[in-house]
Amino acid sequence: MDNEIKQLIVSDEKVAHVQLENPLDHALLILIKSGYTAIPVLDKSYRVQGQISKAHILDSILGIERIEMERLHDYKVKDVMSPKVPRMHKDETFGKALMLSINHPFVCIEDHDHSFVGILTRRSILALIHRHFEK
Amino acid sequence: MDNEIKQLIVSDEKVAHVQLENPLDHALLILIKSGYTAIPVLDKSYRVQGQISKAHILDSILGIERIEMERLHDYKVKDVMSPKVPRMHKDETFGKALMLSINHPFVCIEDHDHSFVGILTRRSILALIHRHFEK
Ligand SMILES: Nc1ncnc2c1ncn2[C@@H]1O[C@@H]2COP(=O)(O)O[C@H]3[C@@H](O)[C@H](n4cnc5c(N)ncnc54)O[C@@H]3COP(=O)(O)O[C@H]2[C@H]1O
Ligand SMILES: Nc1ncnc2c1ncn2[C@@H]1O[C@@H]2COP(=O)(O)O[C@H]3[C@@H](O)[C@H](n4cnc5c(N)ncnc54)O[C@@H]3COP(=O)(O)O[C@H]2[C@H]1O
Questions:
Q1: CA-only gyration radius of chain A, Å
Q2: SS3 of B62, please?
Q3: Cα B58 from Cα A103, distance rounded (Å)
Q4: What is the pLDDT of residues A10-37, one digit of tens each?
């Protein structure tokens, strides 16, 4: 199983993501439309800076009784996102990807210059293991 | 690896869950407080009927511009939940749990009379595989 992780990667153009400076109403729209729980946050030089989820956005602005939707535009992604997101290099082993996926639904994959290459999901790791398990 | 799944199960008293007839404001509170993306929905005889997530609740009442929080109490969990949730019997094999976890973050575990025993999470499956992988 210690083969390359390259063929498991969801490549960057298929990954829903936002930028640090995006307003929160834009980020909420991307999260709702994509249907994903959490997505990566990139900076202008295409490097991963963290992740953001619907829960982050809702927690940050949950006013008493009602969510003030009109305040969403005044905040930016970087104001509420989590800087903690697992990352690894595209040439590292499957064992490392497996270890990181224990506590994280997805792992960000980077190039030698730390630019974003894509993500590795628990689903793709479990599907590979199941194929080996059945043999 | 084809050992019992019993020691991997998160037992029912540790699983955040709601009932079919609970109002949606109660369900949203449980989801936000627990921090979980989706949780099981049980009926009065403690059988799994589906699952509900914050996205289900937000999608169902997302009015134009603002989420009408006061309407939440008028709906019930059964009105917006998803009836699709993977389930298996507590005596079934690890292979079946692995297969189901490919496309589902958690699997509901049932007894011989279909009563709820607990859930099996991707995390516990990945942790077990990693332990075997390292040997
Ligand atoms: N549109 C869809 N079609 C089919 N199945 C879907 C789906 N959306 C969600 N799922 C299923 O639900 C799991 C959990 O998704 P979630 O959005 O919570 O959590 C996701 C999401 O936060 C992130 N993710 C996955 N694909 C992504 C993408 N293309 N762009 C951005 N984030 C992604 O990685 C987490 C783990 O993904 P993973 O595939 O292991 O696990 C997914 C997948 O098995
Ligand atoms: N309070 C916490 N402490 C430590 N880690 C946490 C955590 N909350 C979430 N995580 C981490 O994030 C993963 C995704 O959680 P999520 O809530 O999207 O998705 C969860 C949630 O929908 C459900 N779940 C897990 N434990 C639950 C429980 N005690 N009650 C109800 N639902 C639970 O099963 C899904 C998969 O759980 P899994 O453990 O494989 O994977 C978890 C775990 O690795």
A1: 16
A2: coil
A3: 26
A4: 999 999 999 999 999 999 999 989 999 9
* Ligand 2, pocket-test mutation among B10, B15, B36, most atoms within 8 A of CB: B36
Run means of pLDDT, 10 residues per run, chain B, 135 residues: 82 98 94 94 98 87 62 90 96 94 98 97 96 81
Q: How far apart are CA A116 and CA A109, in angstroms?
A: 6
**How many Å from the N-terminal Cα to the C-terminal Cα in chain A?**
12
Mutate to test the interface with A, among B31, B72, B102 (most CBs of A within 10 A): B102
Are the C-beta atoms of residues B61 and B82 closer than 8 Å to each other?
no
Ligand 1 within 6 A of CB of A38: yes
Q: How far apart are CA A99 and CA A122, in angstroms?
A: 11
Q: What 3-state class would DSSP assign to B51? A: strand
Structure tokens at A47: 């490097």
For residues A61 and A72, the answer to whether their CB atoms sit within 8 Å is yes
B24-34 vs A54-61: helix crossing angle, rounded to 10: 110
Q: Which residues of B touch A69 (CB under 8 A)?
A: 65-67
- CA distance between the termini of chain B: 12
**Of A124, A97, A93, A95, which Cα lies nearest the Cα of A108?**
A97
Give the C-alpha separation, A40 to A85, whole Å. Answer: 8
